[in-house]
């Protein structure tokens, strides 16, 4: 364990939304153990007999090993939440170096049955809450010429999921938003990456298979990747990083080979399927932002 005030993140200030339980708690503890001072955000939906909520408990754990932290109770669904979290860091420590947008909820239900108000609540917390925090953080980090933003997304946002359409939509939105933020912040020393964790937490326990993998899929196993992304030495930007149980994968959005449509103003379903199969045989390619992909496709068409 790193002594208080020492470690690779010594002198840095971090804000972690949804930091009271599960992944958020593991992130806060890991950052603090590496020397960062941490604003632990968590809305107080449940408190103990002394009026203490999850964020308070995490702060107590950090203080117990000599770290520095304090609790902040904004609800990520509130339009003011991002500003309040960042202002708390600035008022307490006068700076902000690391932003971890982690707050999230998952409400199961088939899309056609799920009330719109429930779908909207998931988007408000997972997507808009993260965007608001990132906006407030970016406003501080760009003038300072330094920042590390980590958006906690999900492979549900890459692949979709049955019965979790709202969650998938919110996390997919974060993936596209994060790539945009990465492109905008790179020239100002503000790097943004997306963490797609696999972990057994209070939100995911129902979907985890009952086998030996459960012992490996802990929130703590994800934290080393988070702290690496938060470090000054990290030069990664715009990455999708899938991790869990001591394992890691790089992920991305790709476009396969370019093929030409047949002449004429109609296309049959069979022809479309054949064209897609031809494209799939090409090499998958990544693009920094969508305009790069557009320019590449337009240039290909101009060579015909």
Q: In a nutshell, what does this entry contain?
A:
This protein has 304 residues and is α/β, with parallel strands linked by helices. The protein has 10 helices and 8 strands.
Observed structural traits:
304 residues, alpha/beta, Rossmann fold, 2 domains, eight-stranded mixed sheet
Describe this protein's structure:
The chain contains ten helices and eight strands. The chain is α/β, with parallel strands linked by helices and 304 residues long. It has two domains: 13-251, 3-Layer(aba) Sandwich (Rossmann fold); 254-304. The chain has an eight-stranded mixed sheet with strand order 3-2-1-4-5-6-7-8, with helices on both faces. α2 links the parallel β2 (37-41) and β3 (68-72).
* Strands in their spatial order, largest beta sheet: 3-2-1-4-5-6-7-8
Q: What is the H/E string?
A: EHEHEHEHEHHEHHEEHH
Q: How many runs of DSSP E, i.e. beta strands?
A: 8
Question: Which CATH C-level class of the largest domain is it?
Answer: Alpha Beta
Radius of gyration, taken over Cα atoms and rounded to an integer in Å: 21 Å
Q: Can you count the helices? A: 10
Q: If you average the pLDDT, what whole number results?
A: 93
Gross morphology is: globular
Protein topology:
Blueprint: E1 13-16, H1 22-33, E2 37-41, H2 54-64, E3 68-72, H3 81-93, E4 98-101, H4 116-144, E5 147-152, H5 156-159, H6 165-185, E6 190-197, H7 213-216, H8 223-230, E7 240-244, E8 247-251, H9 269-280, H10 290-301
Parallel strand pairs: 1-2, 1-4, 2-3, 4-5, 5-6, 6-7
Antiparallel strand pairs: 7-8
Helix pairs in contact: 1-2, 1-8, 3-4, 4-6
């Amino acid at each position: 364990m790193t002594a208080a005030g020492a470690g690779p993140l010594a002198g840095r200030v971090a804000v972690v939304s949804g930091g009271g339980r599960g992944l958020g708690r593991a992130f806060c503890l890991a950052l603090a153990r590496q020397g960062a001072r941490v604003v632990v955000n968590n809305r107080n939906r449940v408190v103990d007999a002394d009026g203490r909520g999850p964020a308070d408990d995490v702060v107590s754990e950090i203080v117990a090993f000599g770290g520095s932290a304090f609790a902040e109770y904004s609800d990520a669904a509130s339009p003011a939440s991002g500003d309040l979290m960042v202002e708390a860091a600035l008022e307490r420590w006068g700076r902000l170096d690391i932003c971890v947008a982690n707050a999230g909820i998952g409400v199961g239900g088939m899309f056609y049955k799920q009330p719109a108000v429930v779908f909207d609540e998931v988007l408000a917390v997972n997507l808009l809450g993260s965007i608001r925090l990132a906006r407030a953080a970016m406003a501080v980090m760009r003038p300072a010429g330094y920042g590390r933003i980590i958006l906690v997304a999900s492979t549900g946002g890459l692949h979709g999921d049955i019965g979790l359409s709202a969650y998938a939509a919110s996390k997919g939105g974060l993936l596209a938003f994060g790539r945009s933020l990465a492109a905008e912040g790179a020239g100002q020393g503000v790097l943004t990456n997306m963490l797609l964790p696999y972990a057994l937490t209070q939100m995911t326990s129902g979907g985890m298979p009952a086998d030996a993998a459960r012992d490996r899929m802990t929130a703590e196993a994800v934290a080393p990747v988070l702290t690496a992304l938060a470090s000054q030495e990290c030069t990664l930007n715009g990455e999708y990083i899938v991790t869990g149980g001591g394992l890691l994968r790089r992920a991305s959005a790709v476009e396969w080979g370019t093929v030409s449509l047949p002449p004429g103003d109609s296309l049959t379903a069979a022809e479309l399927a054949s064209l897609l199969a031809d494209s799939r045989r090409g090499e998958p390619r990544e693009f920094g932002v969508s305009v790069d992909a557009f320019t590449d496709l337009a240039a290909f068409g101009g060579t015909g």
